[in-house]
Amino acid sequence: MSTSTPTSTTAATAPTTTKPSTESMATPTELATLVDDLLTSLGTKFQGVSKEIYDKLDVMGRRLDVLEVDLGRVRERGSTGEAGERGEKA
């Protein structure tokens, strides 16, 4: 059985930083435009999602109103002693 020990000869090197070329740097005006476009896009998406949520809440509210009316009718029938709903005899 042979064992080998790895020999590492890597020296610690300082991280190299490179400055972006002036061609790839955006001007403050370009950055402001990009940020403005991004904020406009996010605002539009937020408005769309908000509308969807409000629409769904409206639908849920209407369904709850219908359910409340139906439950009221069931209670009225139960309190008047109508037979047949739960298999009761009159």
Automatic annotation (TrEMBL):
Residues 1-22 have a biased composition (Low complexity). One of its GO terms (molecular function) is transcription corepressor activity. Belongs to the HSBP1 family. Residues 1-28 are annotated as: Disordered. It comes from the Eukaryota. Signal peptide: none annotated. InterPro entries: HS1-bd. Pfam families: HSBP1. It comes from Ascodesmis nigricans. This is Heat shock factor binding protein 1-domain-containing protein.
